[in-house]
Every structure is written in structure tokens, then in C-alpha cells.
TrEMBL record:
One of its GO terms (biological process) is cellulose catabolic process. One of its GO terms (cellular component) is cytosol. Substrate binds at Q36, H137, N181, Y314, W439, E446, W447. Gene3D superfamilies: Glycosidases. Residues 324-340 have a biased composition (Polar residues). This is Beta-glucosidase. The active site is at E182, E389. Belongs to the glycosyl hydrolase 1 family. It catalyses: Hydrolysis of terminal, non-reducing beta-D-glucosyl residues with release of beta-D-glucose. The keyword Hydrolase applies. It is an enzyme of class 3 (hydrolase).
Length: 486
């Protein structure tokens, strides 16, 4: 086989894989998010984000945990970069903390913040690891939230300004960019059920936030293309929902799937990839809003050229039409709340999924990743695909033998293997999948779950911050170097 790129080139051309072997050019990576790993929350000019505020609000995060220190990645950058090289990563997906660049979300730029990400990008490239930078992974500057946050369109324009600043400052060393991470969570967990920052529980605000996130995505792409050297690649990372009907032969359950698909998937893929919101989405939510917050020209701004779709996948959902008895379960595994993250779909009930489950209570179903990849391949044949998040939380235990710390986590190794097998299958069937990013590099602050859930390839002792590669991380390193599951 031949390849037309190195780890740090922007072009990514793949040849067909042999059995059990990944194509030349396929990227094995790992991912993190700024608030979950960096710490240094009040250092070097960083301003507060909505997650600082949310995590410091009693009762919002398990154990009263915050991201003030997290994994202290900000101070342990060089050691963590060496750890990535030890794990054989081709690429590292990280997010840039908006309040570290613009402490209030507007105006003056914090040079110390830009310098940190320069050091990160340079350190990656020196080790042959390609940087993939995400502009927004949920840490909106608190000052922007005080002015209305994603519920107002001005935030989308502020996001575009921020994108232009970051692209101009870092575009000479970063040639792969993601605009948003999981805008569904930002809109509907943040503004619908309220289990994520900023903790709003208002259906109309959630829909407004979804639109303004879409608008911010499109405006940011335009700003990046105006500030980053040509040849860069652009993507968005979506946590697309795989939804199955409880009773495949019952029309009401099929309609429940349609409603969740509209609110969970097509509310983003429609305007981003086709330039329009789905008519059934507008109809379903008409009792709530007339969508007058969509202005003339918005859809054209959202529908920008995009090279790559990032797929974040963890589990599937099973739904049915609620019969109206008892309390309806709106949960998709992101904490139960009295408020629903599904505006316009109150009649849909989410049902428990059969075992096996991860420590998050999420079912393990690799076939769901197959469904997502093949769907995106069919619907967007002009775009390449990246698995930008996939991983599992388990209750890991550190053991010591002969003075060596070890974490035996066979369940996570099996999870990774089975999902990578699916990726290979989809490539063999013609899907243009360019890479896989394990979530996550490090155990970290797991949002509303605090430090109670561990997803990392690397164990972090939260008392000492010592890093210990887990057996799954060592296995992943072998796969990345061999480029094969054989």
C-alpha cells in the first residue's frame, strides 16, 4: 500500500485495507476537552466559563467536584505529550478554551492563552502527532452567558470573532479544525433538561440555542477559512443518536423514532449539510415556537462547505409511544431530570436497554456505530468521516506488583476492539473513515458526574495526579503501531 501523507500533512488519502489491517493514512488518536483536563482555571488570564459557574453551584455536580484542577494538564503538558507519543498516537483531538483566549468572550485577546495552545500544537508536531483542534467543547465564557448565551444570536457572532482570532494565531501549525463538539448536548442538556451548564430548563430556549449553535458553526467556518492558510480540513463533531423502535411493527413507535431523529440528528445535519431544517421538526415543535429566531440568510450562513463529519458514538436508544401512565422517562443516560431534553417529543418514552452496560449505564452495542457510519456515508458521500469520540467508563482498580502500577481493564479493551472491528467493516464496505479517536486520553472531570466515572486510556490518581497507562491503553498503542487488529 502507499500513502500520500505523513502524520502532519493535511491531505489524507486512504488505500483499501487488507483483512484486519487499517488503511495507510488512517489516524489512531485520542481526545480530551479543555475544561475536563486542563485545570489552571484562574491562572494566566483565563476567565470563568459556564462550567466553572455550574460546577461551583451546590448540587449540580456529583461530589461537589469542579474542574479547577482536573488533570492539571496545563502544568503537565510536556509529560502528557510524551505520554501520547508513548501510546503511539497519530493524532490528538483537544479543545481550545474560549475563556482562556478571550476571558469575557469578546474583545481583548489573552496572549498567555494563545501561547499555551502554541506550545501544545508545536509539541504535538515535534512528536509526529497531528493536532485536531476543537473550537468549542461547552465552556462558554460566563460573561456571554450573562448576556443571554446561546439563547441569543449575538453569541454566534462572538464565536465567529473568536474563531478568526484563533485561526489567525494558530493556523500556521494546526491544519485540522472542528467547530463544535456535540451541539445537541450544549442545546438540550444545557437548556432543556438543565443537567449540563448553564442549567437552563426551557424548551424554547433549547431550540433557540440549537439554531444559534448551528449559526455559530457556519460563521466560524467562514472566519476560519479567512484566517487559516489554505489546505486545512474542517469538521464538526456530532453525537448522532441511534434510535430503535420498541415495537417495529407499531406505527406510533416508528413515529417516536422519527421525532427523536429530528430533534437529535436532523436538527443539525439538515441545516449544516442540506441548508434547511426538516419540515417535520418544524411541525413537531410548532406548538412551542414559530422559529422566528431563524433570520433571512441564516441557513446560507450555516450551510458551509465541510470536508469531514465527526461522529461521536457511545450507545443506542430504544423508544416507544408513551401510554400516559406513570412518570415518563426522558433519559438518554445523561442523568434523570424532571425536565425533558426533547422539546416537542413529550410523548416519547425511552426504555432501558439490555446488558451489557458500561459504568455510565450505557448499553454496549457496536452495531450502532456501524449504523451511524453507513448512514452518514450514504447521506453525505462527498464527505470523509472521523470517529471523533468512542469509549467506555468502567470502575478501574490500580494494582501494584514488583513496584509497577497496573490497571487491568479487559472490558475496555474488548469495547475498543469490537468498535474498531466495526470501523474496519465499514471501510471495507466503502465508507471513507479516516480515523478513530478514543475517548479519552486521560481519566478526567466527567461533567455532571464529576470524577466518579473513568473513560481514560490512562488512569489518573486524583490525589497525586500520577498517570498510569491502563492495559487498554497499552493494547491501543500496539494496534496503532501495527495498524492491525490481527
Amino acid at each position: 500500500m502507499t500513502t500520500s501523507h505523513s502524520k502532519t500533512d493535511s491531505a489524507t488519502t486512504l488505500d483499501g485495507p487488507a483483512a484486519g489491517t487499517f488503511p495507510d493514512g488512517f489516524m489512531f488518536g485520542a481526545a480530551t476537552a479543555a475544561y475536563q483536563v486542563e485545570g489552571a482555571a484562574r491562572e494566566d488570564g483565563r476567565g470563568p466559563s459556564i462550567w466553572d459557574t455550574f460546577s461551583h453551584t451546590p448540587g449540580k455536580v456529583a461530589g461537589g467536584d469542579t474542574g479547577d484542577v482536573a488533570c492539571d494538564h496545563y502544568h503537565r503538558l510536556e509529560a502528557d505529550l510524551d505520554l501520547m507519543a508513548q501510546l503511539g498516537l497519530d493524532s490528538y483531538r483537544f479543545s481550545i478554551a474560549w475563556p482562556r483566549i478571550q476571558p469575557t468572550g469578546r474583545g481583548e485577546v489573552n496572549q498567555a492563552g494563545l501561547d499555551f495552545y502554541r506550545r501544545l500544537a508545536d509539541g504535538l508536531r515535534q512528536r509526529g502527532i497531528r493536532p485536531l483542534a476543537t473550537l468549542y467543547h461547552w465552556d462558554l465564557p460566563q460573561s456571554l452567558q450573562d448576556a443571554g448565551g446561546w439563547g441569543v444570536r449575538e453569541t454566534a457572532h462572538a464565536f465567529a470573532d473568536y474563531a478568526g482570532i484563533v485561526g489567525g494565531a494558530l493556523g500556521d501549525r494546526i491544519d485540522a479544525w472542528t467547530t463544535l463538539n456535540e451541539p445537541w448536548c450544549s442545546a438540550f442538556l444545557g437548556h432543556g433538561s438543565g443537567v449540563h451548564a448553564p442549567g437552563v430548563t426551557d424548551a424554547v430556549t433549547a431550540l433557540r440555542a440549537a439554531h444559534h449553535l448551528n449559526l455559530g458553526h457556519g460563521l466560524a467556518l467562514q472566519a476560519l477559512r479567512g484566517s487559516v492558510p489554505s489546505g486545512a480540513e474542517y469538521s464538526v463533531s456530532l453525537n448522532l443518536h441511534v434510535v430503535h423502535p420498541d415495537r417495529p411493527d407499531v406505527a406510533e413507535d416508528l413515529d417516536a423514532v422519527r421525532r427523536i431523529d429530528a430533534l437529535g440528528n436532523r436538527i443539525f445535519t439538515g441545516p449544516m449539510f442540506a441548508g434547511a431544517y426538516p419540515e417535520d421538526l418544524l411541525s413537531d415543535t410548532a406548538p412551542l415556537t414559530d422559529w422566528s429566531f431563524v433570520h433571512d440568510g441564516d441557513l446560507a450562513d450555516i450551510h458551509q462547505p465541510l470536508e469531514t463529519i465527526g461522529i461521536n458514538y457511545y450507545s443506542t436508544s430504544r423508544v416507544r409511544q408513551w401510554d400516559g401512565t406513570g412518570q415518563n422517562n426522558h433519559s438518554t443516560g445523561h442523568n434523570l431530570s424532571s425536565a425533558s431534553p426533547w422539546p416537542g417529543a413529550d410523548s416519547v418514552q425511552f426504555l432501558p436497554q439490555p446488558a451489557p452496560h458500561t459504568a455510565m449505564g450505557w448499553n454496549i452495542e457496536p452495531s450502532g456505530l456501524y449504523e451511524l457510519i453507513m448512514r452518514m456515508h450514504r447521506e453525505n458521500p462527498d464527505k470523509s468521516l472521523l470517529i471523533t469520540e468512542n469509549g467506555s467508563a468502567f470502575d478501574d482498580t490500580v494494582t501494584t506488583a514488583d513496584g509497577q502500577r497496573r490497571v487491568h481493564d479487559p472490558e475496555r479493551t474488548d469495547y475498543l476492539r469490537r468498535h474498531l472491528e466495526v470501523v474496519l467493516q465499514t471501510i471495507a464496505e466503502g465508507a471513507d473513515v479516516r480515523g478513530y479517536y478514543a475517548w479519552s486520553l486521560l481519566d478526567n472531570f466527567e461533567w455532571a458526574y464529576g470524577y466518579s466515572k473513568r473513560f481514560g486510556l490512562v488512569h489518573v490518581d486524583y490525589d497525586t495526579l500520577e498517570r498510569t497507562p491502563k492495559d487498554s491503553g497499552l493494547w491501543y498503542a500496539q494496534v496503532a503501531r501495527a495498524r492491525s487488529l490481527a
